[in-house]
Amino acid sequence: MTDKKDYDVIVIGGGPAGSTFARIVAQGGMDVLVVDKRREIGVPVRCGEGLGEREVHSQKLDIPRHAYSTEIVGAKVIAPNGKSITWKSDETRGWVLERKVFDKWLAEKAVEKGAEIRSYTRAIDLIRENGNNGTTGKISGVVLSHGGREPYEVRAPLIVSAEGMESMIARKAGFDTVHKPYDVDTCYQYEMKPYDHENLIELYFGNELAPRGYVWIFPKADRKANVGIGIGGTSFNGTKLGGMKGCDPKILLDRFIAANPHLKLSEASTLMDFGGVISVGTPLNEFVKDNFMVIGTAAKQVDPIHGGGIALAMECGIMAANVVLKAHAKKDYSKQTLFEYEKTWRDGPGKKVAKRLLLRKVMEKVSDDDLNYIFNTISDADLNQIMKGQFAGPVAKVLAGRPQLLGVLSALIH
Amino acid sequence: MPVIIMITIKHDGCILCVGCSSVCPTNAIELIGTRMEHFPEKCIDCGICVRTCPANVIEMHPKKKSEKSADKK
Questions:
Q1: What pLDDT sits at residue B4?
Q2: Do B23 and A233 touch (CB under 8 A)?
Q3: How far apart are the first and last CA of chain B?
Q4: Is residue A261 part of a domain?
Q5: Nearest to A222 by CA among A255, A192, A182
Q6: Exposure class string for A220-251: b at 16+ Cβ within 10 A, else e
Q7: What is the ipTM of this complex?
Q8: Smallest Cβ distance to B59: which of A164, A241, A248?
Q9: What pTM value is reported for the model?
Q10: pLDDT for B19-68, tens place per residue?
Q11: pLDDT digits (tens, 9 = 90+) for A281-323
Q12: Of A279, A60, A267, whose CA–CA distance to A187 is shortest?
């Protein structure tokens, strides 16, 4: 069965990357179809829901009141010994979203500009022009299925993978989208109530507490909060079914809640459980092939420090869409033409992500005692510099009192 | 008889995060409809899905070869 019509571009995945991309190409006059395997766009939520204001500033996003739960005025980072730094700046202002509302709002904006979206529609396979749906032949469409019903084919000269972590179709197109355990964090989160907060994002660090990760408390409206943990994918803190050792973030989250009675979370109710695996590794080494491109988390365009993907997904969705509009004008979807998107990434956000990755790799070598020392030495202004990728000042400050950290921190000052 | 490792998914506790399929090096776990399906014929028994599953619902256990081939049918 073949669909009644062809499209200029088919986008797989209706998250922030896919919807943003679709909105812009639709506005530019392209005929775009977005398919999302979920029965409802934005559901289930698999996210801590934080979004930094500065990260999306250039997009002039006018997020409607119902799409976010609460505004964030700053961040509080807490060392293993309990010492905290509260930090309010343009780097820490933002929102804790209601992802299910936010994602649907973004999708609706795309529809309003002329995009077509099909929910509960899964892309099963790529169509290649020589009829071989394997790995060769020119990509010319996708095979779709609505809710597991009879598969049908839809044609388009360009397929965009905005599939998120799973990225099956991008794999079929020949991209190395498999995530190595070292390059993921596994997460567990509860939405909890009541939790009284000051609209600060709270981040708790410690190798015992959360090996190579952190515990987060993201405040939400009506005395609620997302309380979660992410730990390195190569942690061996738990016993898995069958007896194997592996990651068990939930055990550590429960331990954190029990060990911090002053937060009163052990008395709070859980309103939602969520778990997931997030990318904190290197982005794909290529984003485009002939007639195919990858955007957002599917391209591993994720901040390696906090694992946040929404802002980068939207930024890269815009970047890719602008290149695709030019390609559409020339009717040329070759790798060479689409490569401009990859180049824009490398010259812009790619550089920032590379610095964050470096910071992540340095931080995982720092002991709890050193973390305590660092938190005791640096100020909120230093944290601001660190987040901007300007490491030299804060590193010099730490090394002045603890020169033995030079070996670990030197990677940051080259 | 040689011992072969088998993967089973406890679907009741699965939170459908698709973490397992994102780390599987051989596409041996996929979300099909509303549940994760494991394809033993593609599985190389590496255990990465078991180690990283945040809900701890993937089980790895030794099984006799005859049982594994029976499952494939």
A1: 67
A2: yes
A3: 20
A4: yes
A5: A192
A6: beeebbbbbbbbbbbbebbebbbebebbbbbb
A7: 0.82
A8: A241
A9: 0.92
A10: 999 999 998 998 887 789 999 999 988 899 999 999 999 998 876 555 55
A11: 999 999 999 999 999 999 999 998 888 899 999 999 999 999 9
A12: A279
Structural domains for chain B: 3-72 (3.30.70.20)
Instruction: Give me the number of domains chain A comprises.
Output: 3
Instruction: Residue B37: list chain A partners with CB under 8 A.
Output: none
Same domain, A43 and A148: yes
Interface test with B, best of A169, A176, A241, A248 (most B CBs within 10 A): A241
Q: What's the rounded mean pLDDT across residues A200-205?
A: 94
A74, A148: one domain:
no
Q: How far is B32 from chain A (nearest CA, A)?
A: 8
Residues of B with CB under 8 A from a CB of A: 10, 15-25, 27, 30-33, 47-48, 50-61
**What distance in Å separates residue A374's CA from the closest CA in chain B?**
30
| Same domain, yes or no: A201 and A307 | no
pLDDT tens across A59-116, in order?
A: 777 899 999 999 999 999 999 999 999 989 888 899 999 999 999 999 999 999 999 9
Q: State whether A165 and B22 contact (CB < 8 Å).
A: yes
Structure tokens given for A387: 């987040």
A131 shares a domain with A32: yes
Determine contact, residues A98/A43, Cβ cutoff 8 Å. Answer: no
Tell the burial category of A354 from Cβ atoms under 10 Å away from its Cβ (0-12, 13-18, 19+): middle
Q: Which domain, by its residues, includes A236?
A: 70-95+180-279
A-B contacts at Cβ under 8 angstroms: 105
Q: Do B54 and A250 touch (CB under 8 A)?
A: yes
